Amino acid sequence: MHYVLLYKETAAEVGKRADPAEADAYWGGWNAYMGAMAQAGVMVGGNGLQPPETGTTLSIVDGVRHVHDGPFADSKEALGGYVVLDVADLDAALEWAARAPCVSAGSVEIRPVLPPPPQS
């Protein structure tokens, strides 16, 4: 079964990416974690994301497009990346999520992926 892990990081965690004093440890933790999933053969794919301020949000209200810089919702955590796993069940997905470097400072949301639509 496929699950997506959505990695949510605080602004402080995202800031470590470019901080010379913390970047090596930050990226080292993520590289080790991603490497472990790849080596275990459970990672289908995924990507890290640029910081929230680089994003754009689109909504359409009464037929009119509204484009906003950055994420739509104000929150203390931002989506930092995602991975799609192919594992037996939710318990296995939870085990991988618990190992994410951001889980102690942010969170990891785990969601089952919708199955493909039936072919007609």
Automatic annotation (TrEMBL):
The record, for InterPro entries, names: Dimeric_a/b-barrel, YCII
Record's Pfam families?
YCII
Similarity comment: family membership: Belongs to the YciI family.
Origin superkingdom: Bacteria
Q: Where is the YCII-related domain?
A: 1-115
Organism lineage reads as: Bacteria, Pseudomonadati, Pseudomonadota, Alphaproteobacteria, Sphingomonadales
Give the protein's recorded name.
Answer: YCII-related domain-containing protein
